Amino acid sequence: MPPVATEGVNVGAISSKDKQQYCLSQQNTCPEICDGRIKTNVCDQSTLEYQCVCANGTIPDVTAYKGTIPYFECTANYEQCVAAHPNDLDGQTICKNNQQCGNLTAESPSASSTSSSDSAATSSGSGSMETMPSATGGESTASASGSASRASGAANSLLREEVGMSVFAATILAALKFLL
Known about the structure:
The protein contains 4 helices and 4 strands; from the N terminus they run H-E-E-H-H-E-E-H. The strands form 2 sheets. Strands 1-2 form a two-stranded antiparallel sheet. A two-stranded antiparallel sheet has the order 3-4. It has helices at residues 16-33, 69-84, 89-98, 146-179; strands at 38-43, 50-54, 121-123, 129-131. By secondary structure, it is mostly helical. Helix 2 packs parallel to helix 4.
């Protein structure tokens, strides 16, 4: 994803509820990108700063994936860009051209790659989630509950609908401008 896709996004204009959903989705996606084995998985709901580090110490390129903070920042940046260019087809076209958000979908690791003795995660009210050492001395694995995955999926679905509606509205406005 090019830097222009997320630079200039106004995080303050994103509702706290959306930021909460974005962090939840980021924290659910990180373990999937890391094949279920993570070392660090944190997300700050107020700033949308995050950290995803796999158990082997690698920092994955999460920008390529849907459901990550860079993905949500990219889509929010697109929405903000379109809103900043009402009745401006050229400006909205630039917004569309710069919208190159991640398009990969992370897959949950297979049940055989994680065991219940490996899994331990904590979540605090501040919206961060970090892994903790397991009782067996190994590294822990964050696991998302089914309801959290469904909530994340619902948030992603709503966001796609909002982006689609923005594009539709922009097209209608451009057509009206052309006709007038």
